[in-house]
């Protein structure tokens, strides 16, 4: 039995030595510098994106202004349309035959069928 314990001790010592070794990290940070062409491409791309963002904001502001103008025009158009409808209704009431006959009676006028002439277009 003493031999088995001796073998275990040697075996454990062999593994314990391996685990006690400090871990060395051989990876180094590599710093790559950009070429002049790459720098110029990045600069032009950044400036282009910035200009496009400004154009987009300007276009949205312009669109909002036009939308407000369109709403005011639609509102005034609706008011004019309502006024036209009211005036057409008033014209219809003023041209009604009952109203014309009442005015004729007040003025002692009479309607003679001999004097009526139908004109068709």
TrEMBL record:
Transmembrane region(s): 41-63
Membrane topology term reads:
Single-pass type II membrane protein
What keywords tag this UniProt record? Cell cycle, Cell division, Cell membrane, Membrane, Transmembrane, Transmembrane helix
Keyword field contains Metal-binding: no
Q: Give the UniProt subcellular location, in the record's own words.
A: Cell membrane
Asked if Lyase is a keyword of the record, the answer is no
* GO BP term, example: cell division
The lineage's top-level taxon is Bacteria
The record's listing under NCBIfam families reads: ftsL_broad
Name the UniProt record assigns to this protein:
Cell division protein FtsL
Which species is listed as the source?
Answer: Apilactobacillus apisilvae
- Name of the encoding gene: ftsL
């Amino acid at each position: 039995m003493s031999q088995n314990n001796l073998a275990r001790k040697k075996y454990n010592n062999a593994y314990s030595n391996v685990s006690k070794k400090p871990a060395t990290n051989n990876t180094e940070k590599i710093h790559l510098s950009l070429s002049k062409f790459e720098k110029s491409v990045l600069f032009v791309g950044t400036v282009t994106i910035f200009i496009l963002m400004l154009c987009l904001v300007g276009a949205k502001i312009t669109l909002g202004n036009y939308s407000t103008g369109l709403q005011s025009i639609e509102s005034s158009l609706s008011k004019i349309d309502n006024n036209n409808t009211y005036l057409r209704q008033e014209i219809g009431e003023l041209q009604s035959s009952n109203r014309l006959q009442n005015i004729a009676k007040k003025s002692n006028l009479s309607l003679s069928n001999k004097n009526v002439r139908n004109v068709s277009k």
